[in-house]
Amino acid sequence: MNGKGLLVGLAAGMAWCAGAAVMIDDAHDRVQTTFDPQMDRIGTLRPRPAREVGRSHLAIGCEMLPRGYGDFEAFKEYLPPLGIARVRLHAGWAKLEPEPGKWDFAWLDRQVEWLIANGLEPLLETSYGNPAYPGAGGASLSDGIPKGEAALAAWDRYVDKLAERYPQVRDWACWNEPNNSKDNSPELLADNNIRTAQIIKKRIPDARIGMLSLSWCDLPYTKACFKVFKERDALGLFHWAIMHDYSPNPDVYYAGLADVWAAFVRREAPHLTVWNGESGATSDPHFSAPISSMKWNSELTQAKWNARRLVADLGHGFDSLVFTIYDPCYDHPERYCNNVPEYWERSRKDRFIKRMGLLKCNDSFEVVKVKPAYYTVQNVATLFDATIEAAKFPAKPVQGERAPGLVTYTFRQKGTNIPLVALWDASNHPTNENAVRRVSLDVRGAPLAEPVLVDLVTGAVYRLPG
Q1: Helix (H, G, I), strand (E, B) or coil at 128
Q2: Which of 234, 342, 392, 443 is the most exposed place for a label (fewest CB within 10 A)?
Q3: What DSSP designation does 63 have?
């Protein structure tokens, strides 16, 4: 495509098969919806692999593997063609050191080495704790940050071994979602982040390290952490300030919440990049959290939600990560799901599948389907590659035209200055309807010569009339 401008709309391939079992559809109609803008369709976006896209502001999650919720070998071949270079992994202290002094790095070696060999960049997150040491917390979410002299000494040894073993890894993060637990005070979290970053930096001076990794934009918690960071002159250790979000309507997350949080971070530490480090939607209701308990959840709304979140994050100047590439199969269903319906046939009653992946998996960890959301994220990654940056130029409905709920984000391609305008109706959560509402945009300071409309859900490209 040699278009001189893009309008990216949200209404509602390339076959890259390194392994025989990879099921990636390369047809022009790989995603089908009822969206019909009444325009001439002139093509379909051609997805590009990560090596071609480069290191953009997007990332993909491969979390929870140390806890046995998925099998990296089963889904790894789907990562390069997704078009996202950065891949988040949990290191898993309890799996790496099941007994004091007894280490097993083979499983993590395979993951890190495979990602790098295939042109991807792993981000290693050091959480969680290790019940093998008293006071060192547990191996799962919200189990508590290590505290006490012996536990902290063991934590320090663990982080040092990680950094020593993986000097080729430049991207790191510390403890995941500490503010889920009342036991994790801001002071405890700040100390954990500082000691972790200092150890990593000794081994890898140019490491990029993320702080906080909060489960939501908890401003009081953040302010208390920053007080410690500033008192200990530690802000320079970090590259990112990370938070997460799973709002049913992804667009309500910014005004009064993420924007305020980001403004505080940027004011206190202008060198930090804000990263929405974990965010995604489910393809089926599963009654475990607000985002996943909605009856409107479907494969279509998952695709729309992920696209809205990724593009809006980029428009706000955030890095953005999709949770997650695969459907995690949780143990202890009672902990993560309030109700497992009787009609959900499961071969393992001690397991519960959380349908947040771009790939549909069974409870044997096998990939059984590529969801529409995979192709939608692939489309976003292809368009919003390493050359695209947020840019401010007016792109608003023409004067006097009513356009309730419309949001627009503006971007340019570096070097060419080709503009890209993203727009959709943000007044409600994504729906399973694909009704078309026409709007006229007044775009200034960014000439659109031969513009086209790209539907990010399907990848369809349309010629704009006139």
Answers
A1: coil
A2: 342
A3: T
State the Cα angle at 236 between 231 and 237, rounded to 5°. Answer: 100
Q: How far apart are CA 419 and CA 414, in angstroms?
A: 10
Q: Would you list the DSSP string of 152-171?
A: HHHHHHHHHHHHHH-TT--E
Closest CA to 130 of 143, 121, 114, 116: 143
At residue 188, the 3 state secondary structure works out as helix
Contact, 369 vs 390, CB < 8 A?
no
Count the helices and strands in the chain (H runs, E runs).
11, 21
Distances (CA, A) of 110 to 106, 141, 324, 364: 6, 24, 20, 20
pLDDT tens-digit series, residues 307-317 = 999 999 999 99
Residue 293 backbone phi and psi in degrees, to 5: -95, 0
Give the integer Cα–Cα distance in Å for 141 and 294. 23
Cis peptide leading into 196, omega within 30 of 0? no
Tokens representing 342 are 């009787």
411 within 8 A of 388, measured Cβ to Cβ? yes
* C-alpha–C-alpha distance, residues 381 and 409, integer Å: 16
CA 70 to chain centre: 17
DSSP H/E element including 382: helix 372-383
Q: Provide φ and ψ at 423, rounded to 5°.
A: -150, 150
DSSP code for 257 = I
Segments of the chain with pLDDT less than 70 = 1-21, 333-350
Judged by DSSP in three states, 256 sits in helix
Tell me the three state secondary structure of residue 88.
strand
d(CA 237, CA 271): 11
Task: Please answer whether residues 393 and 445 qualify as being in contact, where contact means their C-beta atoms are separated by less than 8 angstroms.
Answer: yes
Amino acid at 271: H
Residues 398, 441 contacting (CB under 8 angstroms): yes
* Rounded-to-integer distance, Cα 381 and Cα 98, Å: 38
